[in-house]
Amino acid sequence: MERLERGHRYVAVVLLAAGSLAMAAIAACGSSGEAAGGDDPDGSAGSSGSSGTSGASGGDFGTSSGTSGASSGSSGLDPDAACATTTVAAKRAPANLLFIVDRSGSMNCNPPPLTTSAACEVNPVAADAGAPTKWSITREALKSAIAVMPNNNSVGITYFNNDDECGVQATPNVPVTALSAGQVTLVNGSLDAVTPKGFTPIVGGVTLGYQHLHASTTIMGTKFIVLITDGEETCAPDQQENFVNTTVTNAAAVGIRTFVIGAPGSENNRAILSRVAFNGKTARTPTCVHAAAPTNVGDCHFDLTNAGTNLAAQLNTALDTISKQALSCDIEVPAPDGGTLDYDAVNVIYTPSGGAAQTIPQDGTKPCSAVNGWQYSPDKKQIHLCGAICDTVKADTTGTVQVALGCATKTVPK
Question: Is the pTM of this model over 0.85?
């Protein structure tokens, strides 16, 4: 957080760079904006720095692999039907998570009740050496959460600021790479090397995170930003509205969703953080509060401001929830055995553990969050399971999901 008067002179630096960053965003994102059905994240903030528990362990749903042996049920498509040409185990799309983490000076403070947010504002480096700080709690929670993520996920980290003032960066401090023992070691070493200091350029840091994920040709699968902050924008506050309403929304339109965790100190920024989560398509509930005012009200994000002495436990729970949501209900659309895929002849079959196969209907009539079925991604490279069936499939660790090609797609009644 660390709102100090001298921070205002860095706002001008960020604003001067905004035009060039906007053009960079358009150039980087223009190629797939049409397919995604939306504009690209526009660069609403510039850079004053250099150029940023799930128990599952594999990429398949359930335990099946290869061709299908699923039995048919009253609501299931028979994989051996005459129309079926191929039935394969559903391959979960890898999840790519870029953690964008606040390292401003206020992260040095102890969380309440040892230090209040108001006292931290006055003296952002005051901390009881014998008690954990907000940074040490965040650091250890990230280590624990990343260590147990599925090994087909990719994880990277960007810190803001990057220069002890208002600097942000396009290249992550830890590249977004598939989890391995080496990547976990790299993440842990990076976290251990951080010393919080400086201001809070949320807008610039997250904007460049979007650009990096979207422009990269090596990051495949679902993409997420995970923003962790204990405060509010102190480097470019006049750009927040454009960031929330345009940049975050456009990032979601091209498939980059945004999780938000608000640590103690972000009480007066709940409205902004809640709107970022809502526009970023990760709202905690469909009816969560995401109004512009009052500024201290909003619950679409993970609000940990009242965690008190339970901050470590609540942060671990939030990261565990994010990990499970990211690992997802996104399935790669399989390629047919020769020829061109008929997108109107694709069916998703779920066989619960100990139960009969059932065909999940396609439902493209409403947003994914409002249906119980499946939808194609805008580029039709993935299938998204939506609503209750997504939760059911993720919770059923021994059930199987398969994709059958060749039979007319079962859809919800019109």
Answer: no
Q: Which amino acid is at 133?
A: T
- Indicate if 323 and 338 belong to the same structural domain: no
Q: How many domains does the chain have?
A: 2
Q: At residue 392, what are phi and psi to the nearest 5 degrees?
A: -65, -45
Please tell me the predicted confidence (pLDDT) of residue 205.
98
359: domain range?
A: 61-93+330-414
Model confidence over 15-24: pLDDT tens digits? Answer: 223 332 332 2
Q: Burial of 217 by CB count in 10 Å (0-12 exposed, 13-18 middle, 19+ buried)? A: exposed
Query: What is the tens place of the pLDDT at every residue in 303-351?
Result: 999 988 899 999 999 999 998 888 678 888 888 777 788 999 999 999 9
Region class of 189: left (phi > 0), else alpha (psi between -120 and 50), else beta: alpha
Cα 146 from Cα 387, distance rounded (Å): 26
- Please report where in the chains the tokens 């624990």 appear, as a residue: 144
Question: How many distinct helices (H) and strands (E) make up the chain?
Answer: 11, 13
Written as six digits, the tokens of 253 are 């339109």
Peptide bond into 294 cis (omega under 30): yes
Asked if the structure places residue 56 within a domain, the reply is: no
Residues 306 and 358 in one domain: no
CATH code, domain with 259? 3.40.50.410
